[in-house]
From TrEMBL:
GO molecular function annotation: hydrolase activity
Protein YjdM N-terminal domain: residues covered: 3-32
Any Pfam family matching the protein: YjdM
Family recorded in the similarity comment: Belongs to the YjdM family.
Domain Protein YjdM C-terminal residues, every copy: 46-113
Lineage, opening ranks: Bacteria, Bacillati, Bacillota, Bacilli, Bacillales
Swiss-Prot/TrEMBL keywords: Hydrolase
Protein name: Protein YjdM
Record has Protein biosynthesis as a keyword: no
Regions crossing the membrane: none
Length: 113
């Protein structure tokens, strides 16, 4: 009797094979056999302009004057941004900047302090 992995969504042990996929009868989740063998989700690595790896809570500095969309103000070079959060998407840094408020930045325009 072959041992199939538990469902990655609900951890059910009653999974079964359906062609090239594995299926969970309890939550109806389907995934490929290759994904079942490699069940650890890989987190996207975010790097700054110099190639340093960024993490949640880091402090970064803006390396280029950035126009703020929907405003006539400019985020000046050298602005220090504390306690960043990494998010998925095109603008991969979510932060709060003193004097500007909540903002999303691209990692290519910052460097780690």
């Amino acid at each position: 009797m072959s041992t199939l992995p538990n469902c990655p969504t609900c951890n059910s042990e009653y999974t079964y094979e359906d062609g090239a996929n594995l299926v969970c009868p309890e939550c109806s989740h389907e995934w490929s056999k290759e994904a079942g063998a490699d069940s650890t989700e890989e987190k996207k690595i975010v790097k700054d302009a110099n190639g340093n790896v960024l993490n949640d809570g880091d402090t970064v500095t803006v390396i280029k004057d950035l126009k703020v969309k929907g405003s006539s103000s400019v985020l000046k070079i050298g602005t220090r941004v504390k306690n960043i959060r990494l998010v998925e998407g095109d603008h991969d840094i979510d932060c709060k900047i003193d004097g500007f408020g909540a903002m999303k930045l691209k990692s290519e325009f910052v460097k780690k302090v």
